[in-house]
Fold:
Amino acid sequence: MAESPASRSLKVSSLSRAHRSPALIFTAHVALLMVALPGLGRLETSADTRVFFGDNAYHQDLKTFEKRFNQSNSILLLLRWPGHNITSSPAFADTLRAVTDEAWTLPYVLRVDSLANYPHVSSTDDAFSLEPLLDVLCPDECLEERADLLDDPMLVARLVSADGTTLGVHLVFDLPFASPTAVQQITDSVRQLARRLEAEHAGLQARYVGAVTMMAAFNEAAERDTGTLVPLVLGVMLLMLIITLGEARLALLLVGAGLYAGLCCMGLAGWLGVQLNAATSIVPVVIITLVVASGLHLMSSFLRQFQERNAGARDAAAMALELNVRPILLTSGTTMIGFLSMNFADSPPLRELGNLVTAGLLVGTSVLLLPMPLILGRFRRLRLLNTTRWIDSLLRGVVADRRGLRWGAVLLVIVSLSGLQRIEINDDFVRYFDESFEFRRAAEFAQKHMSGPNGLDLSVGAAEPGGIYDPDYLVLVRDLGIWLRQEPLVANVVSLADIVWKIADQFGAADVALLGRDEIAQYVLTYELSLTAGQELEDFLDKARATTRVSILLSGGDSKSVIALEQRIYAWFEAHAPPAFELTVTGINVPVAHMSLLNIRSMLVGILLSLVLIAAIVGGYFRSFRVLLITAPAIFLPIAMGFGLWGWFVVNIGLAASVIAAVTIGIVVDDAIHIIYRYQHTRRTLGVAPREAARVTVLTVGNAVLITSLALALGFAFLALSGFEINRSLGLCTMLIVLCGLIVDLVLLPPVMTWLDGDVVGDS
Structure:
């Protein structure tokens, strides 16, 4: 095919000048891939959920607490044997003794508590003694007349169920967070123990749940979705691109560009020692999505030049590059700003997500503008499928002067935005995982038969060192425990005050409040000296004897209920405690409960600043205040509409909201700026009237916007098949936002731009 002088000039000005050294371009990109690929083998997955906490006050409280006492990393091993009761079954008692002994051999175990080693306080003729409660209850045969020993409120729902049919072995671990394998090692060893118990004792049910197994479940979710669901999502996107573009090689080339950027980014992350987690595991999908979204505009222009203008492949590539190089650079730059705004997030993994995607998008933009046009120019012929007629027909219908379509879109905007008031920021960490996860099944088993996996820890400070022996202090702690046990969410409470009252009762003291400090200190010392190894009071007393721990197990509860209980505890303490006493409500569930709200608040600041900066850049590029005014709403409105629809259909949203906002802003920015850029280009360069410029914009750019939106919406819809709530919410809500963005960009944005240019649409 002969080349026209105009096309040849265009090719020289864009393709030749920007691509003078094709060999250098390809060599550089291949070299980058070769450097990055070995880094993939250095990537490790971290199961440490604490990386999400950041340096906020709640996490600092937890770290201070764990320096004073032991770590909160625990597992509750539950044993239930239908037909057996601990008050009447010697076999059940012997099994518990064996499990308690074997639990000490588990890796990193710090403490083991069960009825088999729980210290039972007794005294005879002023002789004080401690012996394992199980030995008192079942010395040889179980003595049902001693079943009342199990009515101890410190035991029920912690080490034994109220009916005696379920037993608990509470395991505390000294978890080395620097080790990427420790969590899985602990979980695997407890799983093996549970499976062996079930195999050796017919009918016995052994389940395990706790903070450590929740960390392992997060790790499993990341690995499961990365290995199976992510390839499925990419496959669906590829299929949609093949159908809508009509050329399989172009679709493969486009997805290949995204894969290249994703591989390079993750490989370099491996070299830098980045550890993947539940947030950063989706980085490759986000990078591929954004590169595909940006590259589709280049690909769509290439096809249009190739088909409609009968240009050769090299000319078509040159023209496509000439038309799209500036909007691609503009959209890529503004999208990077959007992801860099994630550095405002409270959680470090979300900041890592933003920075990694920014790096990947930088690589992807380089691929789209340098090797991609050269590759497109080498196509001799295209085997185009006749699959795009319906797209052209749909776009012609959109640009037709139909007020009904626009008013329908306005009504959708109003209805969806009204759903924002229904959204509740709330997380249920058990329901983060569906029933296919062992953690979810074990947690529900625990909630049904004992207590849930959630808990709180209170650090109650006295007025001075040694102040915990003050009778007024102990009375306060005991009253706090009594009040807590009346809370519906609380299943079990353990405190030093309960132990002191037991000891005093055995010594015949009528009322601890009437005892002196020295006498109480002597009681506690006598108790400590009688404890066996592994049962020390370090879990409940600090070294200065100025602070004690109150440990609480909850029957269940989502983040809202945990925060509400935290606030009620502070209110009770403020109303009943002297000013000299101090209280800190902490435990692993407190920073977890506050995590979503903290991140959403900080992300809102970052997103709003990025929207202002993006609008300023786009407005400054076109030197138009009207463009500045329209850019921010064009980006913000689809995101708000998507969340509004989520409010109508789902209501609750948690940590996923932070990820959703960051991911979708990149997609929405891309399409909106391409629409604005092409409209402004048509108006200024070609001198076309506003309404005609809007029509041309939709018919040219709309093809890429529609293909992008449909491919991404369908792909993210399949992400809703994930068993992990964050990824499931990401898939569904992103799909809604992408479809809302499609409506805003094609139906509302063009007439608004013409109106701002003084051309009244539909009524003139």
